[in-house]
Amino acid sequence: MPEKELVAASSRPIVLSVLSRGESYGYAIIAEVKKLSGGSLEYTEGMLYPVLHRLEREGLIKSRWDESETGRKRKYYRLCRDGERALENERQQWLGVHNTLAALWGLKPCRI
Amino acid sequence: MSDLNALIESWKRSLADLSNEQADELEDHLRSEIDALKTRGELTAVEAFAVAAMRVGRPTQLAAEFDHADAARAWSLRLRWMVLGFLACMLLNAVVVVANMAVGMTLVVRGVSTPIVIMLRILSLSAIIMVVITAWQLWLRRRAGSVADVRPPRWLLSPLALMIGLMTLPWVDAMEKVVLGVVQAKALSVHELGRLSVTTSITDFVLPFTAPLILFIAATTLDRRHNPRRVRSEG
Fold first, then answer.
1. pLDDT by residue (tens digit) across A7-40?
2. CA distances, A79 to each of A50, A54, A61, A83 (Å)
3. How far away is chain B from the Cα of A65, in angstroms, using its nearest Cα?
4. Does a structural domain hold residue A10?
5. Which of A48, A70, B45, B223 could cross-link with B4 by S-S, CB 3.0 to 4.6 Å?
6. What are phi and psi of A42, to 5 degrees?
7. For residue A35, what are the domain limits?
């Protein structure tokens, strides 16, 4: 399990990336991140929802209320144009950090 | 199912520090978690609720996380509570000052001895404080949904709220002057006015020491009356 600070810092690019795959909602985002990370990244509700709300205030994502498959009221989020640009920026920054560490550890770098 | 809905409603009431929209979103999350746990077939609906509620987190913790992420909203809410608290303090002070002076004046005019007047004034003030504390606790319990989540509102702990509270003191003084004006209009004798003034001063001085004791005894008595099982187990 990564350090708390790293989990918090990476939540922004991860949430934007999940939403770049299509519209989603809180519970599904947590489940997807857990699955993709092989269980090493487990977001709490108290962490994810404030992140989603902050991204929405920044105009990077948009939300709408709709009925779920069970007929319940559910809030769905999707990525905006500004969110796509922000995600690209995040991607370059994180890959830059990744490649520096990869070079230091003798690993193969990724294409930015 | 109705049991589960009642539990969820109660849980949702404990999220009073969050906006309705945030609470609705967390409710959907809680229900999704309950559905997932029930699908595994190992837990009943109520058990699944207990596990899901624990996973979602304590309401105080959730509110703190949301506040941290949206400080502007958190402060606007706090400010609203401070203003309401300020108005409530003013109203309460007015009731307490006027009621206590009225009690003192009535007793003095009827010729009740000074020590008895002081005692009755302390008792009447303690009773008012007791009623206020009880009403506040009942409101908090209703708001929190369960006793475990009862806590003082955060605005009470804020230094700003303390400052606002102190600002009400001159206002209380002004109210006392109004009451004294009424007392003078009642044409009390100099002797009666003197006795009233003495009982007011002594009551104000000893109240901080005696009122907590009276309130403690009253609270213990009421608690035993409402929880007879505990009395038996203790006896």
1. 889 999 999 999 999 999 999 999 999 999 998 8
2. 16, 13, 4, 6
3. 9
4. yes
5. B45
6. -120, 105
7. 4-80
